[in-house]
Amino acid sequence: MKSVNDLKDLAQVLPSGCRMPEDDRLHLIANDNRYLNFFKIVPLYPNHISYFVIPNDQIDLLKDEFLNKVQIIIVEGVGVILTPSCSSDSETILKNMVDWAPYVSSTSSAQYYKKSKDSL
Length: 120
Prior knowledge:
The protein has 120 residues and is an alpha+beta fold.
C-alpha cells in the first residue's frame, strides 16, 4: 500500500479535481486529536458537510466512489483534502469549526438550539 508522510506527499497524490485547503490551519484536523475528536462529536453542519477519515498508509483508498460521497477527506497524521463537491461555503464552515474546536470539550455531546413554542 502506498503511504504519505507530509503535505508535500499528499499534494502529489491529489485525485483529479481535488484540492488542498486555502488555509493551512485546516490540516490541524488530521494532526491533532483534539480537532478530530471535535469533528466526531459535533456535526459538520448537518446534511451539508460529510467527511471520510483514512490512515496515511492507506492512501490507495482515494477512489472515485469516495470522492463522490464526501466533501472532505482527512488523512490521519498528514492533512485534509477537499473534494470537488466541497464548496467555498463548506470550506468557510470548516475554518470556523477549526477556530472553535480548542474551546469545546471533546467529551461534550452535540447540542442544538430549539425555539420553544412560548417564544413564538
